[in-house]
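Lab meeting minutes (informal)
Scribe: AK
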Amino acid sequence: MSELTVSINHELVTVRHGWTAPPGLPQPRTQTPLTKPQRFPMAKMVHGLDVRHFPHHPADHELFARRLRSFVPHDAFDVHAHLYDLSHLAPNTTTDDNPTQPTQIGHHVFTETMQKWMGDRLIRDGLFFPMPVRDLDCQAANQFLAHTLNEHPGSRGLMMIRPHDVPEDVEAEVARQGFAGFKVYHVFADREDTFHAEQLEFLPEWAWQIADRHALAIMMHMVLPRALSDPRNQSYIQKYCRRYPNAKLILAHAARGFNSAHTVEGIHSIRGLENVWFDTSVVCEPSALESIIDSFGVTRLMYGSDFPVSEMRGRSLSVGDGFYWIYDHNAEWKNWQHAQPELVGIESLLALQQACRRMKLIDRDVERIFGDNARNLLGLNSPADPVANKSNVQSQYQAAKQIIPGGTQLLSKRPEMFAPQQWPAYFEQAIGCEVVDTDGKRYIDMSHCGILSCILGFADPEVNAAVIRRVQLGNMSTQQTHDEVTLAQLLIEIHPWAQQARFTRSGGEAMAVATRIARAKTGKSRLAVCGYHGWHDWYLAANLAPASDSYQLDAHLLAGLEATGVPPELGGTVATFRYNQIEDFEAAIARCGDDLAGIVMEPTRSVDPQPGFLETIRRHADKQQVPLIFDEISSAWRLCLGGAHRQYDVEPDLAVFAKAMSNGFAMGAIIGRESIMQACQESFISSTYWTEGIGPAAAVASIRKMMRVDVPAHLLQLGTIVQDGWRRLGTKHNLPLVVGGRPASCNMNFDHPDSAALLTLMTTRMLDLGFLAAGSCSLTLAHEPHHVERYLEALDVVFGELAGAIRSGNVASHLRGPIKHATFQRLTD
């Protein structure tokens, strides 16, 4: 049988009578790689790459209908498919045998061919580009593509480019033809062995620059033998995605995951990049796809067929540290009764189906992979379509307020605390420092980051792994998991003054337990309290005290906390004092008299203790023989490993932890001296869900990671850049900006009568620019310098608008909705 070998990939494409190997597929050993362009009869080229000659069987449709029809959604989108004219692939070949039929493999051929096995799940819209071969007439191929897609407004095209193209001409052609971006390919690298080409050899920097200026996509099939696990590829992607954040990089074939381990091992290196996407095309093993979902969630993976490769019969296989493509022609199938080679398109869909099943995805997630992600990337949700642009997340919250009093479970998460009718109440996905709301809009979180709970970043992979293991092995039984013992040991190791620990599943509960222990230990009732400590009766009882501003909780972080429903009999059981005010503290102690049960305070929040302040309180606790309780729920782990009190050399009798201790999973802890903790034995303190296994598993994983990684140093570095940037931009725009807090958790405000309106306007405009931003900023380990740089660049623009609003004399007129709430308020709308 005659063969035609065409150098169109890092391996080879063999063109036989009725068979063509696709890009990325190795060939029989009898073939000889080409090192120079060849001259072939056009008739053989037409015949070999003409998908209309590929055989299809009724069994193809039967298999798809039985295994995949219910999986593939209606109105899907194919993000990786080739449309081409065979005459453009090798324009300098001889034409001894003129073809007797049209040479165009256009959109109609695409749909007619795919329908043979997909039936009523046929995908019509997609992202199309020419077939990449070394001798391709790129100009003609691009013109053919553009002309073909003129009749298909739901689709987009990518312009095939070469590294030596003239950038100005390329940029002009992109604008003229309306291309969505570029398709680049290693066969255009200026070397013989293009399989070993580094990415810059065929994806030049000028292409990145154009893509960044116009927010274009770049489809890249990476090479080098180990694909994404090769450090050179990792460094290249990191460098250029960060340098050109508006460019949208699509890593074809699941980052060329033909050997699935290459993607699995390398995916961590690019986790957190906001401008990287992946397609599923002709990947026939689920592991690579699973690793992408695990690291990037469901919003970055997009279905692709790689038509016409989808119409071949075979599949890729991981083999050692490489991969192999097995076909109908390079394996012995004749006498094998258990299987016959199937269409690559079906094999890759089966792999995707298995990945979705393994990752427990729901229908909405699958719909994203098969269409929404690609359409969002390409801007195909038309701004003129009122349905497509109606905010689902806002209507969801309005409905929620009818059935959930207060709208949310946490005051600090109410949209009214940020920008009413603008702030997205619900997230669909949160990974690293990126959040995707239920409208599919993506944001970088530069605000509270889970209300200080996710210090390692959202969905930290190590913490998630521990939690998923616990879920798979069982979260609840008649016993408890040993993780709670390990957690107690870790906390005591970090805080050697403590000998025992008890656990809850929230900070508020843990504070209630701590005050119960103090009262049980002393047999007394009154508490001297400084700072914010939650919603429980023991704390809100402070607002039942005689009317005096210095006694009320308005001076302690959150103003307006109503004590409605708190038994009035608790009035007088809490005396408050202000931080760093020794006289206030002594007055509170005096008000408690001989009934003082304990002293409750945060060792620090936004400022350091003045010299001698904590030491004086420690001496008073010893003198009164009452427990000193440090609330470390918000302050711990951000300034140093463990409780913030460790850096002040003042030891409490009890310390309470939650939030960052378990990186977003429900967990609370009370540690203390044995002599005081034993009071737990004398008071009934018990709850079923304090024995579930997820919380301890998450906390153990989080703490172990924080023992290895210097998280406070990271937060100090980036937080300092944020605070310095605020001051610089405030001065630049002549804003009355007040910067407070410390780098690990900083805050800003405006010394202006319209400060709340200014913060609301800032938040609203930053949402428009892709950031969750507010008057406070508590960064995480997942934040990197490029996130902060982009945030400050956006804030520069917004601060200019705030300055203009102030000059106008009517800040509120610049808002699109109501002004943010500054205190606890009953929702009336």
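Next up, CB showed the second protein from the same session:
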Amino acid sequence: MISPSHRWRPNSLDEHSRRIVRAIVVGAIMVFAIAWMWAPRTVSSSESIWFSPRSTIGAAEFDYQRATHQGGRHSSNRSLLSIQEGWSVGGFPVDSYHIVKKGRNTRVAFNGVAMTVNLLANAILFVGGIFFTYVESPRETIFTTLRPRDQKRSRVLIGLAVTTGLLVPIATQHFRTCDRLNREAYQAREAGVIRSVNHPFMSQMPTWFQSAWTHIHRLEVYAAVQNSTAKQSWSRGQQLNPIDFSAYPALQTVGLIGPLDDTDFSEIAKRPLLHSLTFYRVKNIESAQKIIREAPLLDTLEIHMARRRSHRGPDEWDSYDDMEFYGRGWDYQMPDGRDWHDDSTETEGDSDETFDAAFAKGEFDLTHLHDLRVLKLGHVPESAIDLAQIIETSPNLQEFDWQIAGEMEDSFIISGMPILKTLSLSSTRVRTEPTRVVLEDLPNLHSVYLPRTQEFDLTLSDLPLLTSFEARAFFSMDDDDGIDSMPFVHALTIKNAPSLLSVDITTSELLRWEIDNCVSMRRLSVSKEQPPISWEEMREGSYDPSDDTPTVKSLAPLWDWLSQRQGVNSLRLVNLNIRGVDFSRFQNLPYLKSVWLDGCNATIKQLEAVAKLPSMRELHAPNFQLSEKAIQRLLAANSQWETLKVDWSSLRNIEIRNQPLLRSAMGNRELVANSIQLENLPRLRDHLFTRTGIHQLNLANVGQLQGIFISGRIPKTADISGVSALEHFCVAISEFKPEHLETLKKCENLQTLCLPNCVVPESLFEQFPKWKKLSTVDLKLLRIQKENGDIVPLSDEHVVSLAKIKNLSRVNLDRTAISGRSIQLLARCEDLQAISVRGCRLRPGDLDPLAESRVLTELNVTARMKVPEQIQDIVVRGGPNDDPDDMSTFDMSWNSIFIGEPKAKERLRTRRAEALGPPPAGREPRGPFSRRGPMRRNAPTP
């Protein structure tokens, strides 16, 4: 047995061994720490901050994310040295290498000077850390090296001093070079700069120190011609210095403005991380092809050819030069008054034929771009692109956008591209004959965009992910295309598209309509127009279906297809003459729920046939004016209506009963009905608007009705007890019965209460503070009936209840008996924005409390009423000839009630007289909606 005195203890080691063990442990820790600091850090594009052309270099900062994070998402299964998709940087203490990973390609770029700085700094840190950990007395070792007596100088300390002497000038030069390059790029005004900072405290460091962590990776546009007089005028007379592209190792995206005739940009193509290249205003195909040939690893390529003079301004700059790159806008006019797109300077030497002939002298060769993912061609002629070659040599293409200069060719056949997701086709000229487009065997294609001004013969087959095909609102290369959503189709075949949800087309005559194996198709929209010629000859709403022959024959394939059993649940017909269409044939559409008829002419029998379809719930025909009997026939044909939108505005008697699912009928249209009877409509969410008073009003079990607006009297026998979710109640010149008040007490969501020229019970004012959402009150010329039967005008004692409304924002007290006491009470409302006191007998000084309001934006007074000087800019004065009955702050219409716009048509806003001169120092000019001063504007609401 071993005695305790002979057990091994750490103290039994000699001093030398203990120092070696300590140095090894510290060295291992430092190796892991330095390796972690050298690991690549992924730059999250979702949090990047881009510089605008007029921003400053020190205006923003950006934080790196570790390689284990990407876009804010933590990936715990990633190793320390794993490379994430996108752009990563690495190195310590400064960034010395960049890695860009896109798909299967990973590219690396090194900065030699930065790498030297890092190696020297890491050597000093590693060797110095181990050395001072090993030695027993670091202070004595340093002192001995500086002033040796009997001991030798430390060679390690001398080596560290020499290494530090080399590091300081190299690092200083590196920081200065980075600062100079960043400033030059900023001064060129075409650089898209991203600033990357490792730690938040670096934002407080000087710019020259941060420059080593600032990387220019994107030049949005760069002018190829530096000595152009036009370019100098666009840059406001400043001479732009050329950029040395070799000095930016992180450069990944470059956009060049042509022409590219005499300038050598081969250095751009040699950038190791370059993956996106854009050309603007290219005139010579061969000059752009030289640059493309040197960049075989491009991921995105955009080519925008120069346009003819008819597409350019008087300074011979096309629309791509107008992207705010050099400071002009679309509304720019020349000094002689000519507009930006004025073509008066066009000469015969620059005709369309001469310009297009220059395009035909070359062809783009993209066969070496095997990794190309996005290809966009703007104003590129058909002769310059071999479509079959692109399909064969670009298997990774995901987005293809081509605007053809001139007319489209006879046919486009695209097939066998396994990754293609988006396809866009357009042209600058309209072809008179239909263009045949065949898309087959594209398993990932989900979007197809076609031009609105061309007629197509479409064949879509084996497209499992296609969800819709439509005309693009704005093509990415063509700023002159119009806005529309439906392509013009002459013939259509769709097979094996299980993800297709909607088909929206415009046509004049269908020669073929075949849709098979589209199990997800739910929406169909067909619009009838004449064949397009050009955008200039097409006018919105120029088509009249009554002037056209019936579509029974011209769209016969469509009607035959609908007569079969289909899964469509929404059908929209626009500008079609459908009088000869037999809707009873559509009984085989078991899921058809919604029918839209816009600009069509149909009979009541056809609408009845639509109403009797098995699943019909919604009919949208807002322009159909039907008689009362026709409306009753539609209601009787279907008791499950959810939406029945027809033209109700001309009906004198509106009667809807027993429609438990009806949500919308009248909408927000003004009615002229004398009698309105709504019973058992628990889901109706409409607003009732009438132009005049009504004789009969019966609202029973209409719990979701949103608003009642009656511009006149309501009968004393009116029954409104069936409303509980009412938000707006407005009537005029009526006697408000206690029964009406009991109904309104149940409306907890009441927001607007307008009772101009009405007689109300006094108990109404006890209810005002209980409506938590009430914000708009109109009590002009209000008369109050007391319990003893006396009728008195609204006075100060009643305003006390108004002032207790929490959210009161607009109030009208015209021609009431209020005094300055009421103004004092209302001025305490925190959210009061508008008040009208026309016709009130107020004395000078009664309106002074309103000057302290911070949110008041409108004050309606009579012409001679005295208003405090502080709020003169928000005053609306009534004219001497104003109709007293027409001076309500709130117009009884949809726009004024819900937008909050006062009615006064001939109002005059008082402004500061010019004779008073400029405002005092420290006070900004007062506008129509400003407050007393800048400090008052920003002051919080008490």
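CB comment: The radius of gyration is 39 Å.
No objections, moving on.
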